[in-house]
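This section describes the prediction task in plain terms. A model, or a person checking by hand, is given the sequence of a single protein chain and must write out its three-dimensional structure as a string of tokens. No templates, partner chains or ligands are provided. The sample shown here is typical of the held-out split.
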Amino acid sequence: MEIGVRLMRAAFNPTNGPLTKTSLPIAERERMADPFAGAIGTFKNPHSHRVVGNDNPEPVIEELMIASRLLRFIRS
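The expected answer:
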């Protein structure tokens, strides 16, 4: 079972990933996994492995903005 960064790399595999847009040029398909794998590795993984607290709402708002943009990639 794939999880985390490996899951994102598999989901956006440029040749057979279920979330890959084959209408895009191959170079764009190859790079599409990068922002998703980065988001999982940067924002999700730390919360899975240690207590991460933040009293400042600004980073949380920024993370939500990033998530919103990534979802737009998938929906478009």
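For orientation: Helices lie at 4-11, 26-49, 57-75.
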